[in-house]
Amino acid sequence: MGVVFASFSMTTRWTVSGSPTSTYKTSWIGNTFGGGKYWVQNNIDAMYVAANGTVYTNSIWDEAGREAGIYKDGKIVGMLDDTHGWSRLGGKAIAVNHKYIYLAITQGSIGKTEKDYPPDGTNWYCVRRYDLSGKPAPFSGGRGWDKSMLIISQKAELTGLATFKKELYISDAAANRIRVYSTETMKELRSFSFARPGGIIVNSQGNLWIIQNKNSSNSAKILHYSQDGKKLPQEITKVVEPTAIALDPQGRLLIADNGPRQQILIYNVTEKPTQVGTFGIKGGIFAGNPGEVQDLKLYGITAVGTDAAGNIYVSNNGFHRPGTDLRKFSPSGKKLWQLLGLLFVDNADADPQTDGVDVFAKQEHFVMDYSQPAGKKWTFKNYTLNPFKYPQDPRLHTSPDGTFIRRIKGKRFMFLTDMYSSFLQIYRFDNSNKSKIAIPSGMFVGTNAEGKQSIAGNWPPNQPKKGEWIWRDRNGNGGFDSGEYDTSEDYPYFGGWWVDSKGDVWKTLRTQDGIGIRHYPLKGLDEHGNPIYTYSSMQKYKTPSLFTDLRRIEYFPDTDTMYLSGFTTDHPPVGDDSGVVGSEIVRFDNWSQQKDNPTPRWRTVVPHDTTGKREVSTMSMSVAGDYVFAVTLKTAEVHVYNAATGVQVKQFKPGPEVAGESGWIDIPHGIRAFRRSDGEYLVFVEEDWKGKVLIYRLRG
Question: Would you say 363 and 381 are in contact if contact means Cβ atoms under 8 Å apart?
């Protein structure tokens, strides 16, 4: 959710008695642009490239409202208006002619209104018409509040759009039909049957090439049809996962194959379709050193297009919609520009062994050069997910976000949790080869699902029928196999997760029985390098009596220091806001010696809701070096407390480098702090509104 703040000077100072005064600077990773009017949208699901190289895009969702962006020469030149809010979403298709933009959208209901909206419980799957400046272009008989929508279906999204002369072609997948409308009047002219239609392209003769999507019993194909719906004999079958098609200036067909090849297939279609080339390295991001980013290594291809000069444009979304990677290439394959919007509802963490040079999000590895200007410090180095080798990777089946990077016996591990603290996923890296892929290694499911399996559905396979579990990849294949689960039936409420510097896992529970801390000691690494955790070795600790609702935990074994947060008897909650830190952060020294009846070293009250309106709440906390960092939910203010005293010593917001703005903090681990060897602090904060992670840099 987007909340805009006034610009905030990076030279603003705060002075608190007995505390240092210092400046900070704001930077970011994951998006080419820092904010304001300029950000790359969260995903690109469809794309049209005009002859002059203008790129028009469509996506189902962009948090800040750029579902339909317009790009040219590596710059943002505009967006289509009114694609966000009021139960409106983008879609999976877009087409453009000399006068209008035709955008596939979903319009949902909004309850009673005098305007034209769907009845409650229904959606309209529409084509919305815009002029070339991005303003809605209404027409006689148009629907919606501004009469710019053409309703095609109430059952499913539209999967293809194309124009030719004065006709608009629409893939109506729900009806298994291709529908043809006038581009001017938006009246239906004709339609014809076509099973499982996807993307459409129309050649210079007016004939159609249409993707026929696969299903459980049929492979995908590219079929050839006349304008009036007559099936022509040419077809292309040697494609696994066609996601988009385009024509180049030579009349050749370009097919985006999002299967294991991860390439653009090039066909001569003047007579019998003949493959005459490919674009991109075979295997894409997984070729060579798997996961290593290179210009011609594609991954998660969603769209392809060309301009009049033969330049090739490719949209990569990765897998399970992590973000946007839009590239323009010359006809010879030289990358001309690249736009990135890689992060959405995500945070990052630094590798402690490389002093913050290596930074990881849930699917991306960035290499940092802190000498560079704001927003230029990061390089997208590696993509760490391989859906073909590890199809059961939890990142393909869940929505993780909060990243912990830890070193265990010198080896790098990544831990991920989610917006609801419902699990903790574990990944290892194979240091014996050149692969950059994070290998599924283990997983904790955080709650007992009251007699049901903890994760509904068919994933993961072989999971216990009830209760909670710990999975470990005992045979090293990255899959959830029989015999790899340890089970328990513990208290059915979640809280917070923590992985300490030794690799021990900690968990808080919102229990009322007074035993709300779980500790899973690391029992070593198995023969495949997976961390070993068991319920038989799990330790339970009492919740300190001052807490009524325990939320977060961070333990530091080197100093035997425990930090806990939650609501207390002195500062109780108003309502039940399950995601926040609580009302107090408390430090305990010598934890292992007094854990049954601990005495706080200090208690500090953090911003929390006292009105029930949730305008002020602390969402996340992180301890590093001499400070405790906390960030508020709606205002994204970072509060900094002296770790020795609990006294607040600093407070800051996003700086002018990011237009002084941030979205809400949506995740329990939305802040992560790291102290570098030179004493500088890096503070990573989730910023999902405009698709990035903020980095604050400050001295102690």
Answer: no
CB count within 10 Å of CB 501 equals 13
pTM: 0.94
Integer CA distances (angstroms), 97 to 49, 50, 53, 167, 576, in order:
11, 9, 14, 10, 52
First to last CA, the chain: 31
Q: Which segments within 84-187 are labelled E, that is strand?
A: 88-89, 94-96, 100-108, 123-131, 149-153, 160-164, 167-172, 177-182
Q: What is the 3-state secondary structure (H, E, C) of 23-50?
A: CEEEEEECECCCECCECCCCCCCEEEEC
DSSP 656: G
Phi, psi of 60 (to 5 degrees): -65, -35
For the record, the structure tokens of 321 come out as 């919609």
Residue at token pair 């994951």: 30
Strand partners, 218: 215
Smallest Cα–Cα separation from 524: which of 515, 534, 514, 516? 534
Render pLDDT for 640-675 as a digit per residue (tens, 0 to 9). Answer: 999 999 999 999 999 999 999 999 999 999 999 999
Q: What does the mean pLDDT of the chain come to? A: 93
Condensed to tens digits (0 to 9), the pLDDT of residues 531-584 reads: 999 999 999 999 999 999 999 999 999 999 999 999 999 999 998 888 899 999
Provide the token pair at 149: 């929508």
Nearest one of 173, 178, 186 to 207, comparing CA atoms? 178
